[in-house]
Each structure stands twice: as C-alpha cells, then as structure tokens.
Amino acid sequence: MGRTSDIFYTLQVIQPDPGNTGGITEGKKICDMAHMYDIAVQLHVSGGPIATAAALQVETAIPNFLIYEHHMAALLQDNIDTCLYDYQPVNGYFDVPDRPRIGQELSEKAIKPEIITTIK
Q: From residue 20, how far is each of 14, 16, 24, 25, 110 by CA, in Å?
C-alpha cells in the first residue's frame, strides 16, 4: 500500500499551563519530556501574580524555555492587589524572584475578607 502523504509535521513549541497541568512539578515534568524531543516551551500563564511567580520559577529551571507569555490578567489592578509583589517585565525582561518558595505572598487585601479559624 502506498502512502497518502509524505508530509510530516513536527511539534516545535508546547504551552503547558501550570494551573491546569497539575501544578509546578507536573508542569516541569512536561517541560522535561519536551526537552527530550528538542521541543521548546512557552508556559501558558493566564493568571495573576501567583501564576506569574510560579511560571518564572519553572522557566528558570528548564533548558528549553523559549519566551514568556505575559497575559492581560497580570496587568489588572484587582489581580495585582491580591499579592505583595508585582512582577512585571522591564524593557522586555523579568527579574526572577529570589524570595522563599515561589517568591510570592498573598496580601492583606486578599486574606482579610476570609474567615480565619485558629485551632489550638
């Protein structure tokens, strides 16, 4: 039997979203698997400051990082106000947080409306 087509398509860039792929560890595993096949990564970051901080951490840990997706959601003041730190690019580049964990913390504005119960 003959082939119907000799055209082969190669996947060149993947866009896993750490918020939808099972978190940072699972997202990193996906990036590592893509690296084995020489596929670049542009994480899909369509969230606020927590998603931004998490994505920056993953992107600095993978050799196949291509480009950062800066979504409009990261520019909304209501989203920015939910955290202590506002990571935005300067002249097209981000400074990667070197604070503990992912480098982000919730602000009082985000925490205060919630009911906090302390169990002793």
A: 14, 8, 10, 12, 22
Q: How far apart are CA 120 and CA 111, in angstroms?
A: 20
Q: What is the pLDDT of residues 80-95, one digit of tens each?
A: 999 999 999 999 999 9
Contact 83, 106 (CB under 8 A): yes
One CATH from 3.40.50.620, 3.90.1150.10, 3.40.630.30, 3.20.20.120 for 13-111: 3.20.20.120
User: What's this model's pTM, rounded to 2 decimal places?
Assistant: 0.82
DSSP 23: S
CA distance 104 to 31: 22
Question: What is the pLDDT of the chain when averaged over all its residues?
Answer: 90
* 3-state secondary structure (DSSP) of residue 113: coil
Question: What gap in Å lies between CA 66 and CA 11, rounded to an integer?
Answer: 14
CB 52 within 8 A of CB 59: no
